[in-house]
Amino acid sequence: MHALSACAIRPYVVDQAAQALSHQDQTTEDDLVLVREASAFYLKMSESLLRESPGNLKLAQSVAAGFTQYAYAFVAFEAEKTESVNAKAAFVLRERAARLYGRAHRHAMTALELSQPGLTRALAETTKARHLQLSEEQVGLAYWAAASWGGLISLSKDQPDVVADLPQAILLAHWAWLSQPSYGQGALASLLGTFEAARPNGSVTQATQYFDQAMRDGAGAQAGPYVAKAESVALAVQDRAMFEQLLHQAVDVSTRHRNLQNEVMRERAVWLLEMTDDLF
Fold first, then answer.
1. Rounded Cα distance, 224 and 218, in Å
2. What is the per-residue pLDDT across 145-169, written as a single tens digit (0 to 9) for each?
3. 199 Cβ partners below 8 Å, 6+ apart?
């Protein structure tokens, strides 16, 4: 009888724990070392709960966001900084970052498919340009699914089958944008700008419009769009003055608005400024 009762209440306990974890917000923390040290335990526990509560969209979003941000801020970026001094170590870090991006993407897509059966199939039919209406709860998850997908693709240039998924990642981000264009205070528009600049025959003008929208949506408090525009537009057209101006703006924004995302972008902006002579 006691065993039966325990089995009966376990899903409830798991769901309550999942709800609590999904509402954990580290975005106000600006100590990157502290976040990095705490992330591994938090991600493993959240992932374990997600396996028992796969339909919890908020938890799935939290897990996907956590793995994506960890891969971007602490692994892929370290690989870039290491490349010039230790190519072998950089390769190992890029492989790890790709696995983390893939992990985030799988969790996000599993939850999206559970919430809207047929979504994965619709994504694969990119030539039909089918538009699926996403709910407010799905938009954030779709953003992180697309962002992690983009990260994985960027580190898989020697794997044509992975790179070939870029149109699907763009389409998923576009669906989210149609439902909530200002999502993430410009984060979604910035992602679309990065995708537009990265896709074959992408439009620099369109990418610029996305980045400028992201800056407006962020109301001058988000450093990410400035860094993204510097890398995706200014660097691509070899406009050094624009590149440096945007990065200095990113540093200024991150100094005035201290939080985790801005601190990550501040570090990247400073590093890119130090690398300017090598990039131009």
1. 9
2. 999 999 999 999 889 999 999 999 9
3. 166, 167, 170
pTM of the model: 0.87
Per-residue buried b or exposed e for 43-55, using 16+ beta carbons within 10 Å of the residue's own CB: beebbebbeebbe
Buried residues in 197-220 as b, exposed as e (16+ CB within 10 A) = bbeeebeeeebbebbebbbebbee
The Cα–Cα gap between 44 and 174 comes to 30
Residue 85: CB atoms within 10 Å: 8
164 shares its domain with 53: yes
| 210, 177 contact by CB (below 8 A) | no
Q: Which residue has the tokens 């994506």?
A: 68
Tell which residue, 165, 118, 114, has the closest CA to residue 137.
Answer: 114
Q: Are residues 41 and 148 in the same domain?
A: yes
- CB atoms closer than 10 angstroms to residue 105: 25
Q: What total number of domains does the chain contain?
A: 2
**Cβ atoms within 10 A of the Cβ of 223, count?**
29
- Selection from 52, 91, 45 nearest residue 66 by Cα: 45
Q: Distance between CA 65 and CA 59 in Å, rounded?
A: 10
